[in-house]
Amino acid sequence: MATWAYPPLPPDQLNREADSALARELEWLLQSLQESLVSLKEGLQDCASLLAPQDPGSTLVLSSLRSENVKGFVTRVGTKVVKGDIQLRLPSLPVPRGQSSARLTLSQTPDAPGLVLQQLVSVRNLVNQSLDIVDVSTYTGNPLDATFIFSQLHLLHETISEARQMLKGEGDVRGNWWETSASDNVFDPSPPPYVSFHLSIADSALVLLLRTLESNAYAQTPTAFATDISLTGFSLRDRIFGSRQRAHDEAGEVFMWQGEEVRVKEKIRVESQDPSLMAVMAKLTALEHEVMRWVGALRVLMGNEDTESET
């Protein structure tokens, strides 16, 4: 569809009128963004409130499906897990005499170290940084300076996106289990030896990965009854029945855990959706898309359509 001005305007005047209309539209958009930043700040404050420590916290069930391997719960308050009681019945984990299962209980003593979820600490910090960016965009600088507002919105989008990705657990943000497993001091009584307890966040859910370990030196020590030793590299069992299927995806790998080389005997994963974290994820996703839309609109009105978007 084409629009014609009558009587026809000289090309120079037509270009000036077009630039003037574009400038007025850009000014209108910048003024509208100041109002939109108010609602954006409210959404970020809601996220901060959901991540803040509030009693009684969120009690989440952490139990394995269709088995009795793992049964228990943990209570999250803010960025910390303050309570937890988990019963373990794993084939590779000896059960204490007189008990039906091994038990992991978080210590309730005042001097016990807290079990901090570093991903949630990062999300909380990023949300607070986003609030600071909104305040700078609102109260500092010229709100009608398109370049200033564009740079602030671009930074805001990156910060919100990083918070969302941290909550989603993408990449290596969840930490390596052999470096970030819970310390034995977190539990009372101490957990069985060679047990790794690793909590993280993935897709707004609290994920527990339990591993029973064995020393790599012990695993490589041959015994008189070893069935895996063969001059050809294949055991008699493998030649008769075929190679055994890997018990889990880390079987055979060696890790440095607590200053010792270990192998993973058994690996169990359980998870529990956290309603509060799901709400934070939904809000961050909506806010990220909204800021991305603002950045795109500013880019067009500033004549930067060809600028590569970081979104």
UniProtKB/TrEMBL annotation:
Gene Ontology CC terms, in alphabetical order: RAVE complex
UniProt-listed InterPro entries: RAVE2/Rogdi
Pfam family, any one: Rogdi_lz
PANTHER family from the UniProt entry: LEUCINE ZIPPER CONTAINING TRANSCRIPTION FACTOR LZF1, PROTEIN ROGDI HOMOLOG
Protein name: RAVE subunit 2/Rogdi
Native source organism of the sequence: Penicillium angulare
